[in-house]
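Bug report

Summary: structure tokens for Subtilisin-like protein protease SBT4.3 isoform X1 differ between web form and batch submission.
Environment: batch mode, default settings.
Steps: 1) Submit the sequence below via batch. 2) Compare with the web form result.

Sequence submitted:
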Amino acid sequence: MGALQNNQLDQFSIQHRQLSILQNVLQGRNHQAWTHEFFWLTGPQSISETSLLIVSLYFNFPLSSSAEDRLVASYKRSFNGFAAFLTEEEQQKIARMEGVLSVFPSKTYQLHSTRSWDFVGLSELVKREIEKESDVIIGFLDSGIWPESESFSDEGFGPPPRKWKGICQTDGNFTCNNKVIGARYYKGPGKDITSARDTGGHGTHTASTAAGRRVKGTSFFGIAHGSARGAVPSARIAMYKVCGEMRCSDSSILAGFDDAIADGVDILSASLGFMSAKNYSSTVSSVAPWVISVAASSIDRQIVTKAIVGDKVFRGRSINSFGSTKSVPLILSTNASISCDSANAGTCLAECLDKKLVKGKIIFCEEISSGDGALLSGALGQIMQTEEANDYSRIFPLPSTVVDMAQGDNIKSYIKRTKNPQAKILKSVALRDRTAPVVVSFSSRGPNPISSNILKPDITAPGVEIIAAYSPAASLTRIKQDKRSTKYAILSGTSMSCPHVSGAAAYVKAFHPDWSPAAIKSALMTTAFPINPRKNVDMEFAYGAGQINPVKAVNPGLVYDANKDDYIQFLCNEGYTAEEIRLISGAKFKCRKTNGTVGDLNYPSIQLLVDKNRTFSRNFSRSVTNVGTPVSTYKAVVKQLPGLKIAVSPSVLSFKSVNEKHSFVVTVGGEVLSNANVTSTSLVWSDGVHSVRSPIVVYTDTA
């Protein structure tokens, strides 16, 4: 065996210690015990200062007799820890060991499913730094990639950047190129993944949204026809397949994160998260201040599907690629079942519908259905009603449309009073939506459930009805009878908004390769388009600083910068103990004794939780770095609101050079919040050319 390099020795030593812990725990135990959960051990971790992260199990498994077989994954770069199959007794024993920060069960995350770039101002004609853009590497933690897609052609590309240290892991049916420069895949517990190839479509879609090349003449079966492209067509892509078609395990995600940092990616895009209830507060899950948390909002193109019922036209939401149906009989699902009560029949479940009553007709469902029941029963189409916000369109396996409750009640009334009710469903069309951008109902909301001092989400980006590359091997609806295959698909989700921010960050980095992740994040937030709160009742808890404006972010004027020590001091101020911080940071760090508070992290937004029954006053310390005109003077502008008093000291900042820094204090005070649980305004630093805008949010615990 050859000699090991220093980093190899370190990694070998870490893994040896991890196996020793497992062996110690397993001694004297019945090794054929069964475990019901998959647990993590986290030890010393480190917050990466080289990559910008943009972000969201239950087994009956026979345990083998060796620690090596029990160890699922070992993490050595982004943090020190491992994943292993453990019984509850074993995980409790490890949790008591010295130096162990935490042991917790593995979770399963879900994949969050191009007019959009023009909508945010990043047209094909904007200025670009092509050579520097070609040196930017975006890593994706996702379901893999379809490298043969035209969006990933490497025609005209040179070799990968010298900083790239990754690999192209392949089983022979997958080939990287000078566009898709790297790929890895992770099997994970319960997953039979043998290639980085995307068979689910999600990873291909997100990668092409951020960095796909321009492809003319794309559409989804004729819908949304045009050119598809990403924000940075010259950037490189590295795919880390941590997910199957829809689910992703903690062990794979962290292994991918670990590898991506070592491989040298600049931007790490993770379109992952938990499913959450719609419009519920505090559902935002990616809340760490060193990541960008992204909401999803609409663009000025809306895809609608009309249904002609009798002699009236009803406009609903779906992506119907099948073309218009003929005018055929229309039946209520509650009249199409002889085996279920009306409540279950109204859902259009396959086991409830009678084929003899449904075949050749359009069926009306009283809630949104996947469409498998109608399809298997021989229906020619389905009209569904929903009491939820009907604010985005979905793909179904047969002609379909979703209408609101009022329209649905009108349709039901027509069916009941008509002897031979008839209907037809038209092919979807794209219409102009002048209300955009509006944060969509499925997008998670704040306030931050972990820290009341950090506003989340940070920003919003297009995430509704986005067309991008897709895997031709992927099912569009995951219904076996739906045989459609496509190279480009229209999807909605925060998974679609996340790569928009990844692409925007890459666009900014191409102009400023030396900027820190925090500086890029600040540029994106402080230059964002302000969102109209009247269209979004959750205000900043829905959209953060606003909608991304990539072109303006290249020249923000000032940035709020931060580094690893700042984040660690934030943890100090949050109340973490010295030992906990040492384990998290992976380095010896002594909390500074300052008069500051947790709200003093140099963040591009300000958030304050107050008691509804008391007056309040709080100081927030901030500093800005001049990245604009060398000699410049910025004045603070704050829109004062009734009951809220905000002061900035000093209110004028004069700079003499680039990279010069100045500090200031924002004092937020006010009377009792009696009429609202949330109020907000903004601080804008302006030199007459740049407007550096930071939202200020004050809320009560009943928000």
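Above is the batch result. After comparison, the two runs are identical; trailing whitespace caused the diff. The domain at 602-700 is CATH 2.60.40.2310 (Immunoglobulin-like). Residues 150 and 215 are 7 Å apart (CA to CA).
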